[in-house]
Design goal:
single chain, 100 residues, mainly alpha, 6 helices, 61% helix
């Protein structure tokens, strides 16, 4: 582990994790966008896709984790990678938007 990475990891200890994703009450799509932005500011993007997904799943909270457990993925590998997990939450929280 390089010195820069070590310093960065030590600085993460002082960062507050994003609030859990709220799936009830209010605007779920807006709650998702806010959570995704906060997570992007929090996460360590140079980590492996699996570690990034694990951090994401730790931050989303119990209700959203229960939703994750019911989601279907193309493979078990996709279930453990951040991009497919975010795409599934994007579909769940926002769905297909029709522009008129």
């Amino acid at each position: 582990m390089g010195l820069i990475t070590l310093v960065y990891l030590m600085s993460l200890q002082n960062l507050r994790a994003p609030d859990p994703l709220k799936l009830s009450g209010g605007n779920v799509a807006d709650n998702w966008k806010r959570f995704k932005e906060q997570f992007a500011n929090y996460e360590l993007s140079e980590s492996s896709p699996e570690k990034r997904a694990a951090v994401f799943l730790t931050c989303i909270g119990n209700d959203a984790y229960d939703v994750y457990r019911t989601m279907e993925f193309e493979s078990d590998e996709d279930r453990r990678r951040l991009d497919p997990v975010i795409a599934s939450f994007e579909q769940f929280c926002i769905g297909n938007v029709n522009v008129t």
